[in-house]
């Protein structure tokens, strides 16, 4: 045996670290020309100029409880004939082969779904370097490995970055926020598709729920970022519930979006979680107008439509008489509204806290234009970065958690009694706060998505048998 040669048995412990597969049992077959990885759910995605493939692998023989999602760039598509004489077209990828002992090199691998194969990988002669010798009667000549690398404590840390397929639900593909999400995702190597929410339609059944779009069934997405407008909340959240039924990770859930959009419901959620907010009252009967005003306090008061957005449908009544007139006018339109205490000391300013995954990642102070009490940027307000207090940070995080939102814009006022939450926005805009804070908030969101869509750890592991 010449020194420096690498000896392999006909069955070996190998690894494909680029794919997040540090431990595999592989069959080494010099009679086979190409190498093969036995994968399932094989699906292409990405642009035609640089197509990618994603797939999943059960790395533990005889145990399908753990599934490792993988992705790679397609380097070729090749016709391969297996040992049983079956010919099929396979995608070809490239990955680093780790044989242990600090020995590794890149190889080409074909992908095939052959669940009856005992070995998860077949190593063919094209993958063998000149310094590799195969002993056809021996097994496991390389350093022994353990499937413990797939345990709960280690799996998330060991997974490499992979290309994700992400859908942005938005009716405004050219808006700043949507474009930022697309560009940032693509810069990170992901495939990001903008889906018009209203053009989705659903097949609802217990065995195979589906979502269709423009006459075709939508593919599996790793994650969905909902940018659902207020005018289509009901249908948009219905589509989102379908993605949830499919098991897709949704940045914001349908229940949280629904609750945050209904201002009455939202304030009830805030109250239930004992989160500070302006004193609020709601009534239906016109006979209760004076009592409604009395519950909130004295004028000036805020009268707000339940489904108002961007400051629309929000009126400041500076006197009790003016409040009565506004309330009567809203009732005449059969509009649902609530009445709130006006926080004078806020002086036309509010603070928008951008919360991602339970952390305030940026904050800006918005100041109203002229005499307008509303500080919305859509109404001509201005914004600047601001340092928030510990109490304000805690209130914003608590409000986002109350609605179960991974991404939210929490608006609050500074009052003499501490921070008062005005609104929790489930589809916050990126433009104003990114420009004010000089932070890449889209990147922060993708970091959370990449963390959340890693494979779940194997909670209970059976000892693999049947491979000898």
What's the topology here?
Layout lengths: L5 E11 L4 E8 L7 E3 L1 E6 L6 E6 L10 E6 L2 E6 L5 E14 L2 E10 L8 E3 L8 E8 L15 H4 L6 E5 L6 H12 L3 E5 L4 E4 L6 E4 L2 E2 L5 E4 L6 H13 L3 E2 L3 H8 L1 H10 L7 E2 L7 H8 L4 E5 L8 E4 L2 H13 L4 E5 L7 E8 L2 E9 L14 E4 L4 H13 L4 E9 L2 E8 L5 H7 L3 H12 L16
Parallel strand pairs: 1-11, 2-10, 3-9, 12-13, 12-17, 17-18
Antiparallel strand pairs: 1-2, 3-10, 4-5, 5-6, 7-8, 8-9, 14-15, 15-16, 19-22, 20-21, 20-22, 23-24, 23-26, 24-25, 26-27
Please describe what this structure looks like.
It is a single chain. The protein has 468 residues and is an alpha+beta fold. Among the domains are: 6-158, Cathepsin D, subunit A, domain 1 (Beta Barrel); 165-259, 3-Layer(aba) Sandwich (Rossmann fold), CATH 3.40.50.20; 279-342, Dna Ligase, domain 1, CATH 3.30.1490.20. The chain is 21% helix and 34% strand. It has ten helices and 27 strands. It has helices spanning 155-158, 176-187, 233-245, 254-261, 263-272, 289-296, 320-332, 390-402, 431-437, 441-452, and strands spanning 6-16, 21-28, 36-38, 40-45, 52-57, 68-73, 76-81, 87-100, 103-112, 121-123, 132-139, 165-169, 191-195, 200-203, 210-213, 216-217, 223-226, 249-250, 280-281, 301-305, 314-317, 337-341, 349-356, 359-367, 382-385, 407-415, 418-425. The strands form six sheets. Strands 7-8-9-3-10-2-1-11 form an eight-stranded mixed beta sheet, with no helix packed on it. Strands 25-24-23-26-27 form a five-stranded antiparallel beta sheet, with helices on both faces. It has a four-stranded parallel beta sheet with strand order 13-12-17-18, with helices on both faces. Strand 7 (76-81) and strand 8 form a beta hairpin. The longest helix is centred in the middle third of the chain and has 13 residues, at 233-245. The radius of gyration is 29 Å and the shape is elongated.
């Amino acid at each position: 045996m010449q020194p420096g040669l690498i000896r392999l048995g006909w069955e070996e412990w190998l690894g494909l670290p680029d794919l997040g597969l540090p431990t595999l049992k592989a069959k080494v077959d010099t009679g086979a020309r190409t190498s093969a990885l036995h994968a399932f759910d094989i699906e292409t995605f990405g642009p035609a100029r640089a197509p990618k493939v994603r797939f999943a692998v059960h790395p533990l023989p005889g145990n399908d409880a753990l599934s490792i999602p993988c992705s790679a760039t397609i380097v070729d598509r090749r016709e391969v004939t297996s040992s049983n004489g079956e010919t099929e077209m396979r995608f070809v990828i490239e990955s680093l082969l780790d044989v242990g002992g600090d020995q590794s090199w890149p190889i080409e691998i074909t992908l095939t779904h052959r669940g009856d194969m005992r070995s998860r990988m077949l190593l063919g002669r094209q993958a063998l370097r000149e310094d590799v010798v195969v002993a056809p009667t021996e097994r496991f000549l390389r350093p022994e490995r353990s499937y413990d690398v797939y345990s709960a404590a280690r799996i998330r840390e060991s997974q490499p970055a992979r290309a994700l397929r992400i859908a942005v639900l938005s009716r405004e593909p050219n808006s700043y926020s949507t474009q930022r999400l697309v560009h940032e995702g693509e810069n990170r190597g992901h495939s990001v598709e903008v889906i018009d929410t209203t053009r989705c339609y659903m097949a609802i059944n217990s065995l195979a729920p589906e979502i269709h779009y423009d006459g075709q069934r939508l593919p599996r997405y790793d994650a969905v970022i909902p940018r659902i407008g207020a005018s289509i909340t009901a249908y948009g959240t219905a589509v989102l519930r379908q993605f949830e039924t499919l098991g897709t990770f949704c940045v914001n859930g349908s229940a949280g979006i629904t609750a945050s959009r209904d201002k009455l419901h939202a304030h009830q959620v805030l109250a239930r979680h004992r989160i500070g907010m302006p004193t609020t009252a709601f009534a239906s009967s016109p006979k209760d107008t004076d009592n409604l005003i009395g519950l909130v306090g004295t004028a000036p008061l805020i009268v707000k439509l339940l489904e108002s957005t961007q400051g629309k449908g929000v009126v400041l009544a500076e006197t009790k008489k003016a409040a009565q007139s506004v309330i009567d006018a809203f009732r005449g339109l059969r509009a649902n509204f609530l009445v709130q205490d006006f926080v004078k000391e806020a002086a036309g300013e509010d603070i928008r806290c951008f919360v991602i995954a339970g952390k305030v990642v940026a904050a800006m102070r918005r100041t109203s234009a002229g005499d307008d009490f509303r500080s919305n940027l859509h109404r001509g307000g201005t914004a600047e970065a601001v340092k928030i207090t510990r109490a304000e940070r805690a209130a914003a995080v608590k409000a986002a958690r109350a609605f179960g939102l991974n991404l939210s814009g929490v608006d609050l006022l500074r009052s003499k009694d501490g921070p008062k939450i005005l609104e929790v926005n489930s589809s916050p805009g990126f433009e104003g706060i990114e420009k004010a804070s000089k932070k890449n908030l889209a990147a922060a969101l993708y970091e959370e998505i990449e963390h959340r869509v890693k494979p779940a750890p194997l909670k209970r592991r059976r000892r693999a048998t049947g491979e000898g």
